[in-house]
Amino acid sequence: MGRPRQKAPRRSFGAIRKLPSGRYQARYPGTDGILRPAPETYETKKDAGVFLAQMQADQSRGDWLDPTAGEVLFSEYAKRWIDERGIAPTTEELYRRLLRLHLGPTFGHQYVNVISPAKVRTWRAERLEATGKTQVAKAYRLLKAIMGTAVDDDLIRRNPCRIRGAGKEEADERPVASVEQVFAVAEAIGIRWRLMVLLGAFASMRPEELAELRRKDIASDGSAIRIRRAAPELNVGRRVIGDPKSRAGKREIAIPEFMRRDLLRHLDWFAEAGAEGLVFVGERGAKLRGTTFGRKWRKARDQVGLPEGFRFYDLRHTGNTIAADTGAKMKDLMVRAGHSSERAQLIYQHSTRKHQRKLAGDIDADVRRQWAEAEAEAAEHAGSGGAIIHPFVPRVRDATGDPVTQEA
Prior knowledge:
The protein is mostly helical and 408 residues long. It is built from 14 helices and 5 strands. The protein has 3 domains: 15-56, no CATH class; 74-152, DNA polymerase, domain 1 (Orthogonal Bundle), CATH 1.10.150; 179-382, hpI Integrase, Chain A (Orthogonal Bundle). It has a 3-stranded antiparallel beta sheet, covered by helices on one side. It is elongated and about 120 Å long. It starts with 14 loop residues before the first strand and ends in a 26-residue tail after the last helix. Residues 172-361 form the Tyr recombinase domain.
């Protein structure tokens, strides 16, 4: 008699069975105890055993992911992701627009765990053909951030957004106006909005900072402005009052001397009364609206011959360039413009009020020098009989309609 046939030892992890097709199916318990089938069947029992060994090793290392955890629609996960960020209203508006226009149509109906690198590459290629590179870069960065959180949430093992440089924006260099052009557009836009143009250029203030500027934020002699709050305008026309764009946005700006008369006169003529009074309001006392001011800005811009693509925000770029041309330290420029950079904070020296006053003085001297050069050139072309209007004395009338006379 032969020896009795011994049974194979009972498998300690998972189970393998032979299907009617002849292939082998592996099943394994998750960390929750639920038995799950392998995502595919195997030609040999050995191959199925290798899969079970991998699953057991992953669980022992803590690397195992529940394959069903990522079965959540991308549209639902992305909306929840935005809701949980606690981001600024303008950023939230941008994210929801990118989701609606660029990400949702392709990924919205797909589960998070089926979005693969190949699908991301195909989506990006199609969007690049359909729209501008800048919008695609923004949408890609948003997709990468959302999927990065999905990795943290153990919904997927790796982020499928792996295209090198895909989130980098290569925007065109913004135009810079000359000092003469800044004064020309300030004159053309009218006395009520003249100061807004000058502050945008020579104080490097953002539009949303100008919209929320109040009397209490301005030194009594017009020598400085404190930026405490900002009121960015959403696409729907609603302004959202809050902190400036970054922590560095809360700052004190020293005002060049040539602007102080404009600043104090504007407070007397146009600003709302009281410490909380807004500095810039419309002709009928209404709060500043981007659409209304935008029409005035474009008309003045076109009138003086600035490029069609020159935005009001480009005045800030102009001011930053003028300030940099004075030879100021990087840290002083960052403080004045309200920029923040951890690397720069470590590298560059601290900017004191003394440095900021010196920077304002340098801007004052540089603006006066450039205007003197423009005056001399204009006089040379106009001849001895030509009249030159000084940029610091706008052609205005007071509330009674009488001419305002000021020394040049």
